[in-house]
Amino acid sequence: MPQVVPLVLKVPVSIVVIGDTGLEPHSLRAVLESFNYRVEIHWVGSRAEALEIFRGAIPTFDHLIVSCHGDPEVPGGAILVPDEDPISAADLTGRVHLPGKTVLNLGCGLGTLELARAFLGGGCAAYIGASDYVEGNSAVFFAIHLYYFLTTPNRLPLGEAITRARSFDAECGLFNGFVPPVETA
Question: Which tens digit of pLDDT belongs to each residue from 116-169?
Fold first, then answer.
């Protein structure tokens, strides 16, 4: 008699790639899929397309990782878009529509209160980002640890998973989690 393989449901994750972030999205996809996540990648070609994703016009899964570069020198932080104006917190305030989603933004300096308010004001369940310049490998390392702690057999609540992922070193410690009402985890 043939052996029946049990159905294992995979948690879906969207990776939104804005600009050239090297191997970051490929590395994340490979590791997350080994953790039994289902990963889709959106290769963003323009500022307008990124804004459409953040407005919810282009569907994404409930876990959304933004692989991008950020500019912490812009007040409130800004997502850099190659050859176009950056996307600032002011650009996103009142325009984000991502109900129930957890957003992990890997860009430098994008873990600001202003960006958190823009995303949480658009219905996000949580927003996570680095408070300052973060070394690229550390951003990937943080993301891998975060999702490791969110999956079985290590399943932890989001706040605890963030705390554990931040605890590895000072670079990972730059990441902050925000949940409604805007608080840090």
Answer: 999 999 999 999 999 999 998 999 999 999 999 999 777 999 999 999 999 999
Tokens of 17: 């790639």
What single-letter DSSP state applies at residue 6?
P
CA distance 10 to 63: 12
How crowded is the C-beta side of 70, counted as CA atoms within 13 Å?
A: 29
In a domain, 5, yes or no: no
Q: What's the pLDDT tens digit per position in 13-66? A: 999 999 999 999 999 999 999 999 999 999 999 999 999 999 999 999 999 999
173 is a domain residue: yes
Domain residue limits at 172:
11-184
Q: Give 3-state DSSP helix, strand, coil % of the chain, rounded to 5.
A: 30, 25, 45
**Which residues are 105's β-sheet partners?**
66, 129
CATH number for 147? 3.40.50.1460
> Is residue 149 one of the residues assigned to a domain?
yes
C-alpha 163/C-alpha 39 separation (Å) is 24
- Give a yes or no: residue 2 inside a domain: no
pLDDT, position 47? 98
Domain total in the chain? 1
Q: How far is CA 130 from CA 9, 68, 71, 153, 178, in A?
A: 30, 12, 11, 27, 11
